[in-house]
Amino acid sequence: MYHLEFEKPIVELEAKILELQNMDKGGGVNLKDEIARIQQKADRQLVQTYSKLSPEQKVQVARHPNRPHFVDYVKRLIQDFTPLAGDRFFGEDHALMGGLGRFRGQSCVVLGQEKGSDTESRIRHNFGMSRPEGYRKAQRLMELASQFRLPIVTLVDTAGAYPGVEAEERGQSEAIAKSIETCMRSTVPIVSVIIGEGGSGGAIAIASADRVMMLEHSIYSVISPEGCASILWRSAEFAKDAARALKLTAQDLKQLGIIDAIIEEPMGGAHREPERTIDVVGDYVETALLELAKLDGNTLKTRRRQKYLEMGHAV
Q1: At 60, is the pLDDT very low, low, confident or very high (cuts 50, 70, 90)?
Q2: What's the confidence (pLDDT) of residue 260?
Q3: What pLDDT was estimated at residue 1?
Q4: Where are the domains positioned within the chain?
Q5: CA distances in angstroms from 68 to 97, 196, 206, 220, 246, listed in the order given
Q6: How far apart are CA 95 and CA 129, in angstroms?
Q7: How far separated are the first and last CA of the chain, in Å rounded?
Q8: CATH homologous superfamily for the domain 58-309
Q9: In sequence order, which residues have a C-beta less than 8 Å from that of residue 170 and are 6 or more positions away?
Q10: 79 — alpha (psi -120 to 50), left (phi > 0) or beta?
């Protein structure tokens, strides 16, 4: 597994435990007490480290390559998933995936960004950075959901919309704006979860929802710390300062009223226990959908629009 720099003391202890366990299997020397002692030390170190992560460290955890991705959530939570492709204007965008399926017995539309898990898939999915056709596909799926009265679940994990020239030529900003508008006009429940990175318009294009939740160590911001540092200080070396100033952690955003709930991750982050993380996210989504199902379409649309119009008034 890939390890972050600040996790090094924990990794060294875990490597020692593994070494002693292999020695213990050989027989001759009883190392169980020593293994238990080091395990307790590693557990304490893990708790101490993850209970006081700085904003820049949370950025690293949110970007951890072993965090569960969109395809992992779909595989575990969505039955009979049928992916739908294309925007009916230009083509298919593999960075933003979506389709129809059943979430715990309820038919729904699910969509989100997929970053990929190895070199080949990351290139295919463009590292989760969508082009205009991705957002137009999202609009098509959300309109389909409204037509058939299906709730929408979105899983956000992107550094941002793709900034390439060809994306701008095909109307990137218009596609994002129209996607946000489609969210606002929807008459069905929309539940969004930031599962990793929530970057700029690329995230809010599918996260303008009735309920917006974040995993404990995910991030959500108008710009990446590196991008912010490059603009304000003319150097990406100030990314740590930018991460602190941007208020991009789940805890900051909950306090500011930008998100509705924080989903607790297993100790050590979602990458240590991905299946448990996915199940907990599923529980939160199920609860939110049950609450929203009690409201009619016009009420949902009105409350959703008012929610975003009121953001920032009390700050």
Answers
A1: very high
A2: 95
A3: 67
A4: 5-52, 58-309
A5: 15, 9, 19, 17, 25
A6: 6
A7: 41
A8: 2-enoyl-CoA Hydratase; Chain A, domain 1 (3.90.226.10)
A9: 90, 131, 132, 133
A10: beta
- HSE at residue 145, side-chain half, CA atoms within 13 A, is 33
Q: What is the token pair recorded at 283?
A: 């529980």
Residue that is written with structure tokens 């999202």 in the block = 138
With contact defined as beta carbons under 8 Å apart, do 39 and 17 qualify?
yes
Residue in the structure block whose two tokens are 């998933």 = 81
Q: List the structure tokens of 249.
A: 């952690």
Q: By the 8 A CB rule, do 132 and 91 touch?
A: no
**27-44, pLDDT tens digit by residue?**
656 678 788 888 888 889
158 DSSP β-pair partners: 198
66 φ, ψ (degrees, to nearest 5): -95, 0
The tokens describing 142, both together, are 């959300």
Handedness of CA 126, 128, 130, 133 (dihedral sign): positive
d(CA 243, CA 54): 9
d(CA 268, CA 282): 20
pTM: 0.91
Q: Tell me the two tokens of residue 214.
A: 């974040």
What pLDDT, in 10s, does the model give residues 63-121? 999 999 999 999 999 999 999 999 999 999 999 999 999 999 999 999 999 999 999 99
Per the CB < 8 A criterion, the answer to whether 156 and 193 are in contact is yes
Amino acid at the residue 112: G
